[in-house]
Protein 1
Amino acid sequence: MAKGDYSNIQLDMDWYWGGPNEYNKFADAIQDVGPSPCMKFDCPRQKTCAMEGVECKAFRFWVNNGSLTTMRKVNGKKTEVSIEDDCQRILRICE
């Protein structure tokens, strides 16, 4: 698998079925994450970030929250907004 290519993540089914319940939940989460913001919003930096080993604010939010939307104040009112604007912003080295 090429660095940064997560389209073919596979999970060993023996581990999936043989572990405690919390492992099964973790295995479900790995398989059900859906497309990253990089793929969903067709970010032009996908390959560059993979080669440089960096991640943007949108990617970190998606990893930590599993969502492509967040709540922000818009005109003083809390509103659900897309994280698309955070693609390519605040790049950090992947930990």
Note: The chain has a mean pLDDT of 79.
Protein 2
Amino acid sequence: MSTQNEAHGDEDWKDAGEPTARHLELALENIVECILDHGGYPAQGRRQFDLYDFLSENRDPSYAMEMYVAAMSSNTRAFETRIERERKTVEAMLIDHLEGSKWVEDLADEYAAEDE
């Protein structure tokens, strides 16, 4: 029987290198940012997650056409609010989809190992 956490004030003790909630939060933020900035994860090398495929499966194609029209417009400033709103929507979709994923856990493990 282990006495590791028995009434010693170390109830929050974690194994060395085990990620904390903050590591997981940072990992999720960084992966979502990478996907939005580079169209996939990881930014370089073989893609494990592709934004195009994700949006094709999870978003109405009319949104893509609307963004294409915005990109082709000579007055892109008129579309700034719409583009930002769509980006926030996709960001929320990615967070919901990726939270608790193996990619997030693996990156959080790397962050925890760096903190040792």
Note: The chain has one domain: 21-115.
Protein 3
Amino acid sequence: MVAGSTPAGRTNSKENMPTEKIKVYLAGQANEYENNWKESFKLIEGVKFHDWEFDSDQTSADTYFPDDLKGIRSADYMVANPGIVSSEGTWIEIGYFYANNVKNPGDFCDKLIIVWQEGRNPKWSIEFVGKTGFVVSTVEEAKNKLLEMLT
């Protein structure tokens, strides 16, 4: 998105001006384990990102679990990067976002982007995951897909 441009979405019909920022939840691996993957997204203008590492109280599961779910529920879009390791929390986040953003079970969620890296296993499950939302191979592809969705 060009600097100064506004993402598609919420506008004030009278003036055709944005009334609030589009919200995107960044789910998945911590920056330290995935080369600061979330930081390039945060440079997109006109978007408010919820990053669980900073926007949720990480003191304990009693605090971060409800904080994360509130962030997911208020998000317009989700970009999820489970990395190549086990990511139980990420899959819970994806499922919660999916359930809140489709009309019927089995519908495709056009607000969900999942990064499925080449080294991620098991390979057979990508067919299942691909039924939920957009699946891309890299963080850069995810960013480009989000920019496309926002314009």
Note: DSSP finds five helices and seven strands in the chain.
